[in-house]
Design goal:
Number of domains of chain B: 1
Distance between the termini of chain A: 23 Å
Strand order of the largest sheet of chain A: 7-6-5-8-9
Largest sheet of chain A: 5 strands, antiparallel
Number of strands of chain B: 12
Structural class of chain A: mainly beta
Strand content of chain B: 15-25%
Largest interface: A-B, 44 and 48 residues
Strand content of chain A: 35-45%
Order of helices and strands of chain A: EHEEEEEEEE
CATH topology of chain B: Peroxisomal Thiolase, Chain A, domain 1
Strand order of the largest sheet of chain B: 3-2-4-8-1-9-12-11-10
Shape of chain A: globular
CATH superfamily of chain B: Thiolase/Chalcone synthase
Oligomer: heterodimer
Distance between the termini of chain B: 11 Å
Structural class of chain B: alpha/beta
Number of helices of chain B: 12
Number of domains of chain A: 1
Largest sheet of chain B: 9 strands, mixed
CATH class of chain B: Alpha Beta
Shape of chain B: globular
Chain lengths: ~150, ~400
């Protein structure tokens, strides 16, 4: 297991356009950016819809179920903020509700060796401070892909 | 086919010394490389009337100081004091391949006659990706809090996806690292010239960002390389045999900031760029005699081989086995050692080798009867430029 207590995670600094994402994470009911014209979800947020050129973007609720789209296990201690946590799994998750939107996170509550492409995960929330809560992931109880 | 195929050529090439740390300022490396390229062409410095580069420092958290950690066009102008200068540019996208392509366009437009293109790379003291910040701004607000600190991890996530979706084995990459290191022994300018690498070394090396071990990553160095470009008819009057540019392409897709891990983005970037190069040159992958494919991280070669059309998706690690990438193989690959052999100088060295192989000037690593010489000068989705050089204009 990675010792996340040793990680000094940099605190996200929301801007006007990303604030709704962080507000929803703080309420532990995540919203992702969605095009109001074509329905395309995208993450990270972008100024316009990269699917249909619409500028009508809003943040809408998504469920926390998804799968590991890709991952890496970090062994290098170059990023001193995370040196105390190596080795650790940084993962990319695609949520069932938002195909194509790719969320970065960590695989928590499991050995880093459990990270595999396609494995089912569910969203959990990690509070960093009064303003910022990170959406994170753990292995889902049931794994319908197996 | 492109009406301008074989109308522009690479003539001379030049190198600085390549070292791990800066014992002279980077501008001195760049000057050494540029002087070398001009001399290789048999030109005088006063003949040079065009300058083109991509000066970015890919390390983060270090100051960009002109002449010390980057070498801009302004810096080169100050050093060379060219009496006949008529054109210059430094590009913002497409890395050094874009600088070569802009030089091509300027030559075809007739606004200059002899352009030098250089790439100078600094290795800062301390950690290359220096990330001390307590906060994450911009696109990093969605990646840095989870330990995605540098480009290596961004490349690594796509590589796990590639490996596991295609049921492949990362140990097969040893063939790439070991074969390229063997090619490096024919390149006296390369950082790892004189340092062999075995399969056992590769398999035993420390993990950096799984699936990348140490030998999947190019080593940061201080150094520069340069080329002289001119129109084909002028190049034919110069000392070296010209390498004619048959076609080029740029990637036509890009990833939105902070979105990482998508293999399809690599495929779209590489295929869009190479499609332009295949169409403009009239060649296809089966016509290629020798290939240089950017290898800042080893997996870039995999994405390149597949997205450019040399093999199918999921096949690249098998494709490079069985001697296929050797100097006498079916597709001699990264014959100068690649960035894994030379050190991190970005893609201009790949372009140089593509030109040298096309013009028969690659010395003891020359591929026999090479004519059609392909270059993928950077990672397919990152800056994604591709080129074909030939020795026989058509």
């Amino acid at each position: 297991m990675s010792d996340w207590s040793q990680a000094k995670r940099p605190i996200p600094v929301p801007d006007q356009w990303t604030q709704p994402f962080w507000d929803s994470a703080k309420r532990e009911a995540l919203k992702l950016q969605r095009c109001q014209d074509c329905g395309h979800f995208q993450h990270p947020p972008y100024p316009t819809c990269v699917n249909c050129m619409s500028i009508d973007m809003k943040f809408e609720p998504v469920g926390g179920a998804g799968h590991i789209y890709a991952y890496t296990i970090m062994y290098h201690d170059g990023d001193k903020r995370f040196a105390g946590a190596i080795p650790y799994a940084s993962i990319i998750v695609e949520l069932d509700d938002a195909p194509g939107a790719l969320m970065a996170g960590n695989l928590l509550d499991a050995p880093y060796t459990e990270a595999k492409v396609g494995r089912r995960v569910e969203m959990i929330f990690e509070r960093l401070n009064d303003d910022i809560t990170l959406p994170q992931f753990r292995l889902a109880d049931t794994d319908p892909t197996e | 086919m492109w009406e301008n195929r074989c109308k522009v050529a690479i003539s001379g090439v030049g190198y600085s010394t390549v070292s791990r740390s800066a014992d002279i300022p980077l501008a001195a490396h760049a000057l050494e490389a540029v002087k070398g390229a001009v001399a290789d062409s048999g030109l005088e410095m006063s003949d040079i009337d065009g300058l083109s580069t991509y000066p970015e420092l890919p390390a983060t958290g270090h100051a960009e100081v002109d002449g010390i950690s980057v070498v801009s066009v302004n810096c080169m102008m100050a050093m060379l004091k060219l009496p006949n200068l008529t054109w210059h540019i430094q590009v913002g996208t497409a890395n050094i391949g874009g600088a070569v392509q802009q030089a091509t366009n300027a030559l075809l437009a007739g606004v200059c006659k002899y352009v030098v293109v250089w790439r100078a790379m600094h290795n800062p003291k301390g950690t290359y990706q220096n990330l001390p910040g307590a906060h994450a701004h911009g696109a990093a607000q969605f990646t840095a809090p989870f330990g995605f600190g540098g480009p290596g991890q961004g490349m690594a996530v796509a590589y796990t996806r590639w490996l596991e979706r295609h049921n492949q084995d990362r140990e097969k990459m040893a063939t790439l690292a070991v074969t390229q290191r063997r090619h490096t022994q024919h390149n006296p300018h390369a950082y790892f010239h004189g340092t062999p690498l075995t399969k056992e070394d590769y398999l035993a090396s420390r993990m950096v960002a799984y699936p990348f071990c140490l030998f999947d990553c190019d080593i940061p160095v201080q150094g520069a390389v340069a080329v002289v470009m001119t129109l084909a008819d002028r190049a034919e009057d110069l000392k070296p045999k010209p390498a004619y540019l048959a076609g080029y392409g740029q990637r036509l897709h890009f990833e939105t900031a902070g979105r990482i891990g998508s293999l399809s983005s690599y495929m779209e970037g590489g295929s869009s760029s190479s499609q332009l190069t295949w169409e403009r040159s009239g060649f296809s992958p089966k016509d290629v005699d020798v290939a240089q494919i950017y290898d800042g991280f080893s997996a870039s070669v995999i994405y390149g081989l597949e997205s450019y059309g040399f093999c199918g998706e999921g096949e690249a690690l098998d494709f490079i086995q069985d001697g296929r990438m050797e100097l006498d193989g079916e597709l001699p690959l990264n014959t100068f050692g690649g960035s894994l052999g030379t050190g991190r100088i970005h893609g201009l060295w790949h372009i140089i080798e593509g030109a040298l192989q096309a013009s028969g000037r690659a010395g003891s690593r020359q591929v026999k009867n090479a004519n059609v010489s392909f270059v993928g000068a950077s990672a397919p989705i990152v800056t994604g430029t591709t080129f074909i050089f030939v020795g026989d204009p058509y």
